[in-house]
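Please review this one:
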Amino acid sequence: MQVVVHRLIESPLLTLFVVAAAGYLLGRIRIAGVHLGVAAVLFCGLAVGALDQRLALPELVPLFGLVLFVYMLGLSSGATFFASLRRKGLRDSGVALTAVLVSAGVALAVGAVLGLPAERMAGLFAGALTNTPALAAVVEQLEGTAEAARNAPIIAYSLAYPLGVIGALVAVLLARWLGRAAPAEERRPEPLQNATVRVTQAEACEGTGKELLARHGLALAVSRLRRAGQLRVFDGQDERLELGDELVLVGPAAELARAFSIIGPRLEEPLELDRRVLDFRRIAVSSAKCAGRTLGELDLHGRFGATVTRIRRGDVELVATDELALELGDRVRVVAPRERLAQVSQFFGDSYRALGEIDVVSVGLGICLGLLLGQVAVPLPGDAHFSLGNAGGPLIVGLVLGRLGRTGPMVWNLPYDANQTLRQLGLVLFLAGVGTRSGHAFLSTLQSGHALPLLAAGLAITLSAAMVSVLVGRALGIPTERLSGVVAAAHTQPAALAFAVDKAGGDGPNAGYASAFPIATIAKIIAAQLLLSLAR
């Protein structure tokens, strides 16, 4: 064992990959149908770090991982977050904010009962709610004080953090156990289908095709039109339907069934099988000129006499609409005259090699802006101040840039696959780094004989946040999958989010996490610094 430890001490890079690989293997083990997933990397890091203090990975490892993770999360969630503010985001953020405020009150109470120093109580709060930015803010506030005071919040954090992760995972399970079914709009979208219909309803001929779909709220795309035996691409913007027209509709089965009653009966002959004049192809969007622009802005019908019927983004297929903005990595299904397909393919790029190349300029500039925002100090009463730190700043900038999509020639969003890969890499680096750096202090505190009161205090803070977020979210009727994401956000716990996503059948956890995480992070940064000031 000494030989192994010595070898790991000599090679931090080897230590990092040992922790990551062992964590992934441990995370796959299922007990009663439950597995830790990527969260197991943290516990492997704690075990390795406990072997020898010198096995702690450099501070840059978890910091780089944290910044990378939150920035990528912001980019991918920006559009969802700002859209949710008009619907459910304020509710989700309110749940997370309530949980943070209650847990801060519990921290103040248990600190007073146990007679804990302010530094240790603030560290317990940050660790119990697994929030590294809050700990960083506390340590920054203690600059210039004695070394024992600066170390106190770090030790308390390392002691409370593992229980905080476990508490967040239990809270997600509790949210699923007490939850309710998600409404249709939050479930994974249904597979898209084609259907050929004949126009027999006079009402369908009133206005253009786009106006018809909007009037009845039909989430469908129309690809082909056959009129008087002539087959061509349908132009929904200006085209008026006529009785006897035959159309190819694309959408979920439920929407197609509605369309039959509004437009006309379904035909047995599928027009999409006639590829003599029109053909279709799935094309990858790799051109920066197309990314961040809506299909309406691209005007494919005017350029090529073509149309997009569906878009595959990740594992989800979306109905194409004029208002939908494309992202790098999207795969669009295009219907066009056979002789124009090559031009359309060139227009979109259709290069998987280009999609594998990350735009380092946009990523680097975005993260720089986030780090600069995180360094802005906001004054508080009593000569105190707070800042968003290295997690809050990149997160907020990522959300804004993800919402913008592009600024002039600069495309901020990354291809879906690249974003997921970088996000996963950041999460592994963060968990491995925090685990190895906390392992020795965690073991030392356990062996000191003073750990039990601190463990109890940290557990009380964790459970208060967990119970409040679950019960309040349940009382407000938040669907199960979305609530599990909100609960993970209340703990600002990416491992709990990964656990929730693994258990979910849709994108609800990511949506809930994205809508509540920014408020929860900012609230904890402020609350930890206020706890430090109030208790001193």
About this structure: Residues 416-448 form the longest helix (33 residues).
